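Quick one: structure tokens for this chain, please?
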Amino acid sequence: MKRHPIKKVVLAYSGGLDTSVILKWLMETYDCEVIAFCADLGQGEDLKAVKAKALAVGASKAYVEDLREVFVKEHVFPMLRGNAVYEGSYLLGTSIARPLIARRQIELARKEGADAVSHGSTGKGNDQVRFELTYLALEPKVRIIAPWREWSFRSRRELIEYAAAHGIPVTATKAKPYSMDLNLFHISYEGGILEDPWEAPPEEIFHLTVSPERAPNRPREIEIDYEHGNPVAVDGRRMSPAALLAHLNKIGGEHGVGRVDLVENRYVGMKSRGVYETPGGTILHAAHRGLESITMDREVLHLRDSLIPRYAELIYYGYWYSPEREMLQKLLDDAQQDVTGTVRVKLYKGSCTVVGRKSERSLYRLDLATFEEDESYRQKDAEGFIRLNALRLAIRAQRRKPRR
């Protein structure tokens, strides 16, 4: 069956070389109108210039939306409530941003009556999956154009030549020694000089954190207040979600907190080396677990912890709008109802350590935990407890004895 021609496309646009070339390429290849969409997730760029560039390249419209509060409140904080960490190290800063961008693309496509959506992700990475799973979860019949899987360009040099031939302004004529992605939660670095997993990342690539060796020689302690699993204040000062995260990014960055260097398993099947900076997220992750230690029931906490790898995997793979992630989120959030209180953390030369926690919802009881004399716990009761739990071990041991 022949498909109808595409008349209008909503493109996820960053203003960089790739998406600027894509914008022009879509217009030429599909003879269509292109609407550029740029989400402000805290990347710190001049987004007015990004909008102007999109229009100059040929976009019929260009949307630039400040989604920082939505990003932190509706995506980052739910993920932090679930303590999501992929493969033991990665706090999922890029992964959690893509579903929000893709969702707004679909909403704009509906508003503008567009036939298709497009993105600048390559055919090798995870982002193509994250974008497209979201598109199809929200609008199953939408047309998707992924230029890196269609066009004949094979190198950055060819993109630069195309840009020059079409009058597209390019800020640099040589490839950066690595690629980077920045939002309010983190910054990631991949490729180029980082492709050799034996080589340490050069100090000059880091943007958000100072080297731990150059961090202050005196530690800093801060207090974070939580309500139902969400951070709401730092040192007694209440802030919006985005403002709170930005504040902790600054403090954590000054003390070298939040650097990660790992080789991760991409969803498409290959291994990839990534270097990340997540200063505020690292602080919030540690503080949250510290508060949970006194407010969550043992079995609830252990059951929840067993679900974290699966929950993190769903986010990493791009299944934010899947029924299983939504189901898990409800369970994880239900376990957060009593996670209310205050945590004190110490930041020192790259480390973030919990040094105090308190809560009116605490399950910690000094009269039970103390090593001093108490009248709440009968130590003799432990003998029967141990013998009952050892019963199956004793039976197994008896079976091993040779029969006479």
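The two ends are 81 Å apart (CA to CA).
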